[in-house]
Task: inverse folding
């Protein structure tokens, strides 16, 4: 297994990752709150986590990956309940919440597929783990780390000596006995945070020892992480905005219950800016993946834009940058095609000739050394691009043999296992067609005939003819 080091927010240093179970990495990544489309800043985080996971897989490890779906939360309730009458019953409130979250979960999974993000081993929904959350809150109460008030339950942060360690908070700033109900708040209001929220009128609720209510956002991840990955986890990851309060609170809840350290490495990805500014709807610089697709950009070019940048550096997204990524990708894809084909004969000797096999081996070592050093993608890609320059020049003068071309191809396939941006082209068509067929199936199931027709037209443009079989399956062929 290849050694891999990551910057650990807990220690503030790049440390080698030594899995708890040899050869197996347990990875928890905070998933989306499904009340809207993911924006490109959210997607930056999921893309860096996919690269992290693929680097371990390529290094010979198994990865047990859990990514939660937050399907009960303040904003979900706000948006899903708005049109209901004040005297709607709880089943009706649940149905409205589920309709909204199912819809955006499906869109989210479509985005992940379009970006080539590998599906997690587990994708639990918060609403499927309410009993686990209630049990944890009870455990914290029994240990004196939580107290209830007016049907809500709060974490007593003064009770946990390590509270504030991850975010390096000054414990003197702790507001003892003051509690906060919102799930998200600023560093300077370090307070007792909410674990269980009493239901207000017009909100969906579960029964609990404290009356009708629902879980706070932070307890959701602790409960799902422990129940699916166990009491000790190798890596927990999210965007830097989650360090405080979300991850600090996850540690407090989990370690408060377990009585021992929970996560070995905390790994955080930096922000994305658009043209140097924070993305916001009011500035008109707010984009989803669908916005980029509608402008005709390949989702894989967006993936490449994100991955060419080191995950711990702020990425300044621009359409010029996206176009440059498209060009860089085109270079690798054309090179792959060239290596898949045969060299042109008759170019003869070249006094600057290199040994292609040696050249590939040098690039391979540099590539994996860079990725193993805190996922240094800019350096890994530099190793790949200089090899492409050298090998193209060589192939211009002295055509590479079939065996040499195959060695180069093996390296390209190996590197694509991490970047997922330069596949063999026919494979790409197959995946795109399969995704569109699925989308059409979903549209038909939802009786959205206009959407189903639109997808069929899109396939027609791609030169694909669909054949609906009597048994309900769909086959396709090139026209
Ligand atoms: Zn989380």
Result:
């Amino acid at each position: 297994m290849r050694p891999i080091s990551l910057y650990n927010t807990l220690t503030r240093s790049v440390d080698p990752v030594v899995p708890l179970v040899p050869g197996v990495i347990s990875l928890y990544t905070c998933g989306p709150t499904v009340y809207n489309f993911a924006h490109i800043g959210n997607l930056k985080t999921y893309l860096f986590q996919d690269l992290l996971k693929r680097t371990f897989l390529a290094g010979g490890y198994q990865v047990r990956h859990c990514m939660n779906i937050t399907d009960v939360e303040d904003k979900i309730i706000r948006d899903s309940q708005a049109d209901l009458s004040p005297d709607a019953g709880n089943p009706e409130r649940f149905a409205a919440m589920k309709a909204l979250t199912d819809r955006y979960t499906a869109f989210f999974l479509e985005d992940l597929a379009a970006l080539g993000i590998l599906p997690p081993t587990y994708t639990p929904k918060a609403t499927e783990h309410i009993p686990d959350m209630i049990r944890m809150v009870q455990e914290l109460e029994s240990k004196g780390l939580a107290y209830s008030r007016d049907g809500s339950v709060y974490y007593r942060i003064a009770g946990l000596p390590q509270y504030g360690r991850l975010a390096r908070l000054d414990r003197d700033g702790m507001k003892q006995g003051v509690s906060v109900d919102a799930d998200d708040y600023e560093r300077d209001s370090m307070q007792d945070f909410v674990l269980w929220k009493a239901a207000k009128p017009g909100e969906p609720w579960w029964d609990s020892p404290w009356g009708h209510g629902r879980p706070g956002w932070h307890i959701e991840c602790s409960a799902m992480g422990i129940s699916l990955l166990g009491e000790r986890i190798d890596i927990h990851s999210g965007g830097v905005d989650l360090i405080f309060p979300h991850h600090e609170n996850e540690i407090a809840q989990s370690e408060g219950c377990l009585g021992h350290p929970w996560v070995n490495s905390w790994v955080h990805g930096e922000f994305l800016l658009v043209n140097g500014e924070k993305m916001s709807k009011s500035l008109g610089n707010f984009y989803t993946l669908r916005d980029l697709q509608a402008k005709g950009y390949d989702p894989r070019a967006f993936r490449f834009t994100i991955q060419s940048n080191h995950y711990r550096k702020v990425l300044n997204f621009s359409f010029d940058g996206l176009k440059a990524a498209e060009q860089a990708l085109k270079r690798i894809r054309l090179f792959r095609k060239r290596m898949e084909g045969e060299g042109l004969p008759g170019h003869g000797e070249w006094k600057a000739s290199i040994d292609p096999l040696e050249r590939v081996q040098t690039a391979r070592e540099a590539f994996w050394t860079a990725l193993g050093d805190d996922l240094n993608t800019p350096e890994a890609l530099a190793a790949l691009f200089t090899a492409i320059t050298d090998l193209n020049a060589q192939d211009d003068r002295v055509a590479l043999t079939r065996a040499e071309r195959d060695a180069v191809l093996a390296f390209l396939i190996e590197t694509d296992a991490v970047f997922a941006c330069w596949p063999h082209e026919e494979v790409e068509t197959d995946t795109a067609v399969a995704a569109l067929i699925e989308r059409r199936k979903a549209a038909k199931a939802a009786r959205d005939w206009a959407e189903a027709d639109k997808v069929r037209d899109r396939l027609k443009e791609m030169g694909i003819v669909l054949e609906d079989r009597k048994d309900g399956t769909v086959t396709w062929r090139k026209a």
About this structure: The pocket of zinc ion is lined by residues 30, 221, 246, 250 (CB under 6 Å). The longest strand covers residues 192-198.
